[in-house]
Amino acid sequence: MSSPTPAPPPKSTYTQGHSPSVLASHTTRTVSNSASFLLPHLLPTHTLLDIGCGPGTITSGFCTHLPHGHITGIDLSSAVISQAQSLHPPEKFPNLTFETGDILEGLKYDDASFDVVYFHQTVLHLPDPVRGLREARRVLKLGGILAMRETDTLNWYPELPGLRKYNDCLHGMLESTGAPGLTRARGLHTWARQAGFGRENMEVGAGTTVYATPEERQWWGMVHVNRLRAEEVGGKMKSLGLIVDDGVEEVVGDFERWIKDPDGWYAALQCEVLAKK
Question: What is the per-residue DSSP string for 252-273?
């Protein structure tokens, strides 16, 4: 009797897609606001792999910190890689490369190719985080650093019903792909340990992302209003049965109330892990 055919590995996906409403926040991410926990550990000659690099605004920021090294950014989306390449021409960023790649399908790089592997808001979108981190460990050099920063909770004040509903919908979208979803980033270090990193060689910490000024509320609130009205986010929520048309407008209304509230603010808990191979 023949053995059953093994199931194919789960495929990576980025749940929210790369519409303009999503990239509006991605392009504000920088090394200083998204990778400061890693910077003290970098050497000028390090080679770094940024997995799930998006438009490359964080990735390119590493160039000044690694002037004698090299930075490679990979993403599933060929369209967003083209955008990253256009934004960062080689004549201005000679030590920077952007390529398509899928951590779950296996990377093209040899074992022990990089000094640092960096994830930002990517691990929570992987249907199999441990598999992805095993592959990251494979391409790390001995003594190399795995760095991860992932959102755990989204906290709104005032806690309006529509904003709670929005959080629930985001979590449902992530779970629909087999990915862990929100509130799971607090387990990043356990996934790293299951992937082969020793707990004694880890630093576990956290940071925050806060929007509290009127200008920040206006920008951040409208980012989410536009996502709700975009097919890649709001349309997907509706197709999954997480929300209906009337529900979208109710959530939009609460975002508009949050924007106008002088006491309104937002804080996200960002779980941060450094692990040495």
Answer: HHHHHHHHH-TT-EEEEEEEEE
